[in-house]
Amino acid sequence: MNQPSGPMARLRGDWPFAVGKSPVFYGWIMAVIATLGILLSVPGQTMGMAVFADAFIEVTGLTRTELSLAYMLGTITSAFFLTRAGRWFDVHGARSVLIAASLMLGMSILFLSMVDRASEYVATLIGINGSAIAFSLMVVGYFGVRFSGQGVMTSASRNLLLLWFERRRGIVSGVSGVFVSLGFSLAPLLLAMLIDGWQWRAALWWLAVIVGPLFALLCFWLVRDGPEVCGLQPDNQSATSRMRCQLTPQGSHTLRQVRGNIVFWLYSLGLSIHALFGTAVTFHIVAIFAEAGRSRAEAFAYFIPQAMVSVVTNLGASALADYMRLKPFLLVMLASFTLGAVGLIFLQHELGYWGLVAGFGVGGGLWVMLANLAFIRHYGPKHLGEISGLNAALTVFASAIGPLLFSVAYDASGTFAAGPMLCIVGLLALLMVTVFVKQPLDSAPER
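The structure corresponding to this sequence follows.
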């Protein structure tokens, strides 16, 4: 593979200033940037775009079903490009990818802010029905925000943090996850306040500036691709101590090797089924609670205790993961999601409600930890971008079909209990296979 030269070489190096002279280990600054990068991906996440759904429906003339279909098509299309985007991370480094992703996310948000005017202009120009043009442009806009935001920016930010830490990888990613969980929980409320204060179009313009050129400039100035290019070691260890305590002694596996490894598919399918299940529940939350005889206020209030359980679980599990194998956490995560699914079926009962809170809270906290640690612990850092990109493609695809699957199951059965039942079947099958499959690369980190 050709080595980068010119400006690309500078972006991959310790430039424009030497970070080894920093009074604190530069990995902590990278942890802050990585956390901020994940938080700024909110406009590309479901909870970020959902806040603008009513405005898009009003100005484009699309129905809610048509808008949901456009969102699904844009999301699924983005999933097919995420493995290649992960390869860009391995080839070009974190700084270049984060700059490109932030600029693309900003431009995609700006595109969505003008989609109604653009569709009217194109419809007038070529004489085609405006709704058809609006639908097509919404697919393009959703593709842009989902690919750059939920896909590339999230994965690149997470990978950046993992490359700067080894011994403290679990606890650092856990602390980062606390801020991410709280930020994601507050995001719909904050975005709604922004819309109330500035109207939806101006709110999107503000987001486009913040997540686009401003964050890109921050990444250009501060981000470094890894400690080695700066003459440092992960965790600020000395080179000799790192040689004695290598946390990834198995070396790095290629994407081709990983694709044939059943353990990868166990983790990736486990993470994907939560993306499917969690997105579906969030999308239909009001209707699901209404069927159980619960109010709209109760539906939105559910996220508060669930987020609290998730944050505590993530922080505790991330700290323990620095001393334990990951397989037990995967088993507990799958069992927790099964409990949450059972709770959802019996949501009309108080025990069912708290089963949903506990199951999704514990499972969600473990999901964040495993999404951070599973692939670098098993397969090493060299091809982390491609491997995490394939996982991101699967989870994004699952998140796209989740709401539709629950809708189809509801139409066929007349109850929202059908969706969780299907998920229980998949979760139990995955749980049984995970119990019996050995994970030879899953070893507790040496201290």
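The chain has two domains: 24-239, 248-436.
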